[in-house]
Amino acid sequence: MLRPFATALVISLLFACGPTPKEKLAEQRQPKGWDDAFSAPLAEDLSSDDKTLEVRLEAKLATLELLPGKQTQVWTYNGGIPGPLLRAKRGDKLIVHFTNNLPEPTTIHWHGVRVPAAMDGAGAHGSAIAPGESFRYEFELLDSGTFWYHPHVRSSAQVGFGLYGALLVDDGEDLGDDVVMVLSDIGISEDGTLVPGDVSGWFGDYFGRAGDTLLVNGRLNPTIKARVGAPQRWHIINAARSRYFLFNVPGQKLIRIGGDGGLIAHPVGVSELRLAPGERAELFIRPVAIEGGSIIVQSRDADAFHVGSTLPPEDLFTLEVTGDKPWTAFPPIAQTLRTIQPIDTTNAITRTLELTEQPGTAGGQPTLGINGKPASAMEMLHAQVGTTEVWTVRNTTDYDHPFHLHGFFFQVLELGGKAPAVAEWKDTVNVPHQQTLRFAVTYDNRPGDWMFHCHILDHADLGMMAVLMVMP
Ligand code: C2O
Ligand code: CU
Ligand code: CU
User: Fold this and answer.
1) Ligand 1 nearest-atom number relative to CA 451
2) pTM, 2 dp
3) Best CA proximity match to 72, nearest among 149, 186, 214
4) Which of 1, 2, 113, 395 has the fewest CB atoms within 10 Å, counting from its CB?
């Protein structure tokens, strides 16, 4: 039986004396289409089954105006930079009807996704898709998280020319308005043409080629709209071929809630975000009012080459905040986001490898490799399905390398002598110069050949790339 007080409360809720909790939540949300001027277009789903996302992707040249007044012929998925946003739920099946209409072979690699080896698009054994040919990618999305897709053939050039897109696999958590940010850069010459993929020769291979135009979702300094108190969940991907991004958002508190492989164990306040090529992060922000209503977020040079860079910061995007009253109805972010069981390493097999720089032959330029082996004699390692390993990856060079393993998530045990502050699943980790990364990985039942490499794609193509053969 309801007491009079409770009865009154129920009646007031029923008879429009205020919004229901659900309506309150909806009020928090931006209206439909609020981010159209910021986001990448959503891929069209050809399937009527709601457990399947079926899309068409075509790699082709397209002419876009990336810099005002300049027409640039770029390489695209479906005619845009970035490619369409693929959005699905964990457990869904993804079917991609892919056609290569580029002037050269390509593949699609699903960065961070636990696909069967045959769907990994790594082109390890000449499985590239020739011009005019098609391929059907089909796999189940086993994990939620912020993933991305890009070619794995001549990847430094192809990614640099515009071939990349985001794949967001929803975890069903309601943490705020989802915003996907694909960060990249592109090199455009005075006359509007693309800077060649191999510009500045060996020097470019060695230092990595950063385009001097920064793009967020293919746009130059786009504006992201926010409302005071209405939380946003930013899914950020570094899709640049070699550039690190480093930024803070002046006046706003940034809370990191996710990484490469979805939510991390608990939220971590961060003063700035540093993303190596290939890496992802999820940030939670609950906007507060900004003087003047908007602010330009700039990316600073991360100085990954330790040359004491003095490059000025560059504009990345503009945050526009409207409203002035903080919204208090939204609950604070949970202190536990996810339970991540540490990998049991008691019977782990250990392996050690080195990221190396080899002197050139006969006085030639030095080159990069793994365990001293260049691209022409790529290192091949063997492992067994069902086993757990602990890898020690030593960076013996004088600059940083983002280490990336295909096919399997790992847990960092130690980086530069320190244990990580929060438990999370990673597939790409920056290994600072002369430092060591230790991680644990378990090979689930997906045998095959998996690449691992530096995600500065110029370095990978130069030879800092190898193969892990996981045997059934
Ligand atoms: Cu983004 Cu071989 O990877
Ligand atoms: Cu990958
Ligand atoms: Cu590298």
Assistant:
1) 2
2) 0.93
3) 186
4) 1
Q: What are the strands of the beta sheet with 280-285, ordered from one edge?
A: 213-216, 177-186, 232-238, 280-285, 254-259, 262-270
| Site of tokens 């059934």 | 472
For residue 404, how far is its CA from the centre of ligand 1 (angstroms)?
A: 7
- Cα separation, 239 vs 77, in Å, equals 14
**Which residues lie with the beta carbon below 6 Å from any ligand 1 atom?**
109, 111, 150, 152, 278, 404, 406, 451, 453, 455
**Whole-number Cα distances in Å, 161 to 93, 195, 240:** 29, 9, 10
Residue 384: closest CA among 347, 409, 411, 349: 349
The CA–CA distances, whole Å, from 184 to 140, 270, 360, 398 equal: 27, 22, 31, 25
The alpha carbon of 452 and the centre of ligand 2 are apart by a number of angstroms equal to 8
Structure-block tokens of residue 333: 């972010």
Give me the count of residues in the chain.
472
287: exposed, middle or buried (Cβ count in 10 Å: 0-12, 13-18, 19+): buried
pLDDT mean for each 10 residues of the chain (472 residues):
45 49 62 85 96 98 97 98 98 98 97 97 78 97 98 96 98 92 97 91 85 96 92 97 97 96 98 98 94 94 85 96 73 90 97 92 82 88 98 97 98 97 98 97 97 96 94 96
Q: What are phi and psi of 260, to 5 degrees?
A: -65, -45
State which ligand 1 atom lies nearest to the alpha carbon of 452: 2
Strands 134-140 and 245-247: unpaired
Asked whether 277 and 150 are in contact (CB, 8 A), the reply is: no
pLDDT digits (tens, 9 = 90+) for 146-185: 999 999 999 999 999 999 999 999 999 989 899 999 999 9
Task: Please say whether the beta carbons of 402 and 278 come within 8 A.
Answer: yes
